[in-house]
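Quick one: structure tokens for this chain, please?
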Amino acid sequence: MRDKVLLFINGDHPKTLPDPGQYGLIACTDGAFHYLKQLGFPLEKLDFISGDFDSHSGSDESVYQDKFILTLDQDKTDFHKALEIILEKGFTEVDVFGGSGGEQDHFLGNLTVAYAFKDKMNLKFYDEFSEYYFVPNNFKLKGVKNKMISLYPFPSVGNITTTGLNWPLTHGSLSITSRIGTRNFAVEDEVSIQYESGDLLFFVGINEIEYPSIY
């Protein structure tokens, strides 16, 4: 995993910090820097801290001043600008923490940024409930039996077929204006998804569930 990037952004902080030793590059946006400090993350392992520093408070952070990358473009979010820096450094595999929670417009904005980079990078978000990411037209995942699975069209998906789910799809379609595929769950160890058109955001729950959770 040393070719992967660990990126913290300014949503809800992770309940459990990932092992920084598994990553070749570690970065955060300026807002995330504060929760990393509070959580006791080894800040010396950060390769860069980027943003417009509107969340920067100063004080004892001055020791990390040489790692700050100032990005003032107000037409882009701090997350977007951090991904541009990561691409410039030659990395395309990124694990993102802090992408959800907080103000929900930030969460939606983060998904939009991920969509913009989906053909350039493999981004995977983690929070206390699930992992989520855009999946290719032909996708399989093992080790998911009894876990919550949600399929979210972005904004539509055509001719989609799934296996391994309690409520499968066969040559169906999904759209954010009519039918979405949230709150399903896996009844097999392996789930497969095939679709012809559109883009699909895939959520898999962290924990197994004991019964269907549908609403």
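Residues 3 and 102 are 30 Å apart (CA to CA).
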